[in-house]
Automatic annotation (TrEMBL):
Protein name: LAME_0G14400g1_1
Gene Ontology CC: lipid droplet
Source organism superkingdom: Eukaryota
Length: 524
């Protein structure tokens, strides 16, 4: 994947009719801080933790497997986002982030034999409750919006990275000494959630006090913050190619999307994709009768130890005794590839391999899930408009492997047009060849916002079109022609897109939608 050259500090805010960026006035106080390690003899273990008296019931069991997930040992440093259920299901959760760092890779580079006694492999993290409230303090408008709650722990990333690196340097110098956690304890005390009203004047609400330089003496500037997860959207748009569209549609349907993190792939980047899919499938403000729709819940990093909670997630929906019960959707990633063999836990599964291999999607029945030919055509037109460059020949060859074959119906109609017009005209279901202006000087955030705006505009357009179709039809089934799909940038020859608008109509309007068979209108 490409890497950014200009990290930006961006925050989301909810404004009517827009998708605007802002920044919170303060960090959410910590509910818990912890340190996990991988021991060559004992495996993963939680070695230190401190919990706020205001949050005594945080379940830390198996936290060491969540924050040092399978496969992370192949990277020197990484970030892991995660959630912890407040009860036994994922209906209400704490949000956490941990910084992983190790020296094993560096040790193995300098020696043919690895001295296991010198291996340091740790993960330092924080857990926050985005719903925290202080007595006497006004409700935080910033964290009223769900997508802002999803990233409520990320404010501590730069600090815990500095704290862990500083602490590991001291441990490496004196590995025989008992480990001292005073540095973490002091930082936690200055940033934790306190029940006393008197602590409202605490440094916890002053951003300048929360930088780790106060505790480590690091020269890091206060403005040097970790990039926001949404900034990776441009990278993922390039890497996934037209597969971004079926992932977006699955997220819009609030399905269960599981991402398998391949060997050597960054958990930080995959967690960012989790967040991006939740953002892309948000319903724009002002979209009538969709305000009740909750964002797709990101679970970030999960593993084998979460199977029980995921199973209960499903069981509670089935046991609701509602004929039209719905299993709550989510998007998550995992390094435990065995979860791919548990189809009852997900609807679609995306496997992210390294840069030399292409991503793959399959459904829970084991069938391959690819982009449609129309989505390939759409992607090839969007890249120069939004990303500002033309796809190379090699890139086009790669993304063509992600697309299902053209149907015979489309093949025959395309052939007829080519023969009848000497290649001068295309059927109306193709994307129009327009000369759209591009600005190659745009920075990352402008590109990201244009991509987010594109997907949100498609949601609004589809909703308005479907609303008109529903209102113009009598009670019972809603019938539309294949032209309806083309008008909404969908593939009028794809059975998957037929199924998509059927399910989305059922979800949004509780009506059954049917698509007429291909007719001659497509030739107009």
């Amino acid at each position: 994947m490409q890497h950014y050259t200009k990290p930006l500090d961006i925050r989301y805010d909810a404004k009517p009719q827009s998708f605007k960026i802002s920044e919170p006035s303060h960090k959410v106080p910590m509910s818990c801080m912890f340190l996990c390690r991988f021991d060559v003899r004992k495996g993963n273990e939680l070695v230190w933790s401190q919990t706020s008296p205001s949050s005594p019931n945080i379940a830390l069991k198996n936290l060491e497997f969540k924050t040092i997930p399978s496969g992370i040992h192949e990277t020197q440093k990484d970030l892991v986002h995660f959630v912890i259920p407040k009860l036994k299901s994922f209906d209400d959760v704490y949000y956490g982030v941990s910084c992983f760092e190790q020296n094993a890779l560096a040790l193995s580079e300098n020696s043919d034999q690895l001295d296991r006694s010198k291996v340091l492999m740790y993960s330092l993290g924080v857990i926050v409750d985005a719903n925290f409230r202080y007595k006497g303090v006004s409700k935080s408008k910033y964290y009223d919006w769900k997508p802002n709650q999803f990233i409520s722990a990320t404010e501590y990333i730069s600090d815990i990275q500095d704290l862990l690196s500083h602490w590991l340097q001291k441990v490496a110098l004196s590995p025989e000494k008992p480990q001292d956690y005073e540095l973490f304890e002091t930082y936690f005390e200055s940033n934790c959630l306190k029940p006393e009203t008197a602590t409202l004047s605490s440094p916890v609400l002053r951003r300048s006090w929360q930088n780790s330089a106060t505790f480590t003496g690091s020269p890091r500037a206060l403005q040097d913050k970790h990039p926001h997860m949404i900034e990776s959207l441009m990278q993922w748009f390039s890497f996934l190619g037209p597969l971004i569209f079926p992932l977006w549609k699955a997220s819009l349907l609030r399905q269960r999307v599981l991402i398998i993190v391949g060997d050597g792939v960054s958990f930080e980047k995959c967690n960012a994709l989790v967040y991006c899919l939740s953002i892309l499938s948000l319903f724009p403000h002002g979209t009538a009768n969709l305000t009740h729709e909750q964002p797709l819940q990101p679970l970030y990093t999960i593993g084998i130890t979460d199977v029980e909670a995921l199973t209960q997630h499903i069981s509670e929906a089935i046991a609701s005794q509602n004929e039209s019960y719905e299993i709550p959707g989510f998007v998550a990633c995992t390094g435990d590839t065995i979860l791919e063999d548990r189809p009852e836990l997900y609807d679609i599964c995306l496997r992210i391999n390294n840069e030399d291999l292409i991503p793959q999607i399959k459904t829970n029945d084991g069938s391959s899930y690819k982009a449609t030919p129309h989505e390939l055509e759409l992607y090839e037109k969007l890249v120069p408009v939004h990303l500002g460059y033309e796809l190379s020949h090699d890139e086009k060859e790669k993304i063509c492997k992600l697309v299902e074959p053209t149907t015979w119906s489309q093949y025959l109609i395309d052939g007829f047009y080519w023969w009848a017009t000497a290649g001068y005209m295309k059927p109306s279901y193709h994307e129009a060849d327009e000369d759209l202006m591009t600005d190659s000087e745009r920075d990352n955030i402008e590109i990201v916002l244009s991509l987010v705006g594109y997907f949100h505009e498609r949601i609004s357009t589809l909703h308005h079109s479907m609303k008109d179709a529903v209102q113009s039809s009598e009670e019972g089934n809603v019938t539309v022609s294949p032209v309806f799909l083309s008008a909404n940038s969908l593939d009028c020859f794809s059975q998957r897109d037929y199924d998509f608008i059927h399910f989305i109509c059922r979800r949004w309007f509780n009506r059954t939608l049917q698509v007429q068979s291909i007719d001659c209108k497509l030739l107009c």
